[in-house]
Write a structure and sequence with these properties.
Nuclear Transport Factor 2, Chain: A, 2 helices, 37% helix
Amino acid sequence: MTQKTRKLTQKKRVNESILAFKKELKAITFEPFYGSTIKDIIAKLTVKLEEIASQYGYEIEFPEKAKTEIEGDIYYFEYDVKIKTKVSNKKITIQVQFMNVTYEQGGWMGIITSVK
């Protein structure tokens, strides 16, 4: 096997693995995460995403800030997450929606709505 062939094979394996990682993230789309504040939910989502990334041997980097839109009591966040694989770095956009579900108690729910 030549050096060029080996590199192409290795690149193909990494791309397939990224697709599997994305599919696993899409599988938890619309799975609700509950918390007393948005910050609690973000912490739970971060832990969940880091667990999935570690299963694939990846490191995940979250941005300091997210793009935010607000419609009444519904907040839309868009995160451009960096995934460090063994060979390269990839970017994934994750859209998360937060909403106030119990007005009396102040509970919040967050769901991943899209993974690109």
